[in-house]
Amino acid sequence: MLSEWLRGLCLSAAAERTAELFAQMKPYRLVLLELIRACEQPQTTEAMMERFAQLHANFKSTYSGANLLSMLEAAGTIDCITEDGTAYAEVEVEPVVKTDENGIEYLAPGEAPAMMWVAAEAGRAMVEANDPQSRIDALFAKESQYLPVFKRILRLANQEGGVSVAQLSGAVDDDPLVQEPRYFVQHFLKNLERHEAVAWCDNS
Question: What is the pLDDT of residues 166-189, one digit of tens each?
Fold first, then answer.
């Protein structure tokens, strides 16, 4: 019973830290969610960095992929493990005996096991609780005066193959609604992307 209680306490703390991380990193919400989704099954650091590079192509981050992984790990959102599932922090690398060019033996650090990343329960819960529709509804309610602009962008983005920023700019930037205060289409795109209403695609 005590072990179950401690486990529940740890999960609760991880959930709180994860919620706090997402609250502090609102502009990075989508990137963080995608990184968690990427490691629903254990992934190597290389695979996670590749996923971050794909996300970074359309989202210029001041943080590196390694920074974001460290933040997620520190919050208990994802775990760093070895290939056999052992917590990486618990791994003890035994030194190995080597011989130098003069035939003298010495101890050298052993080879550390491969590092893997996997979504923790707090991270999986955050993904499952993610409700883009509610956040989009809240966005539209908060900025109801710009509903015609948001709807225009969504209609254009909904066409097969998507739409370029230049095309959206031509459809939005001269609208009387965005003249005072002055906004450009990127402002609305950023809000829609952050709320998972639109996503970038590569049509090259």
Answer: 999 999 999 999 999 999 999 999
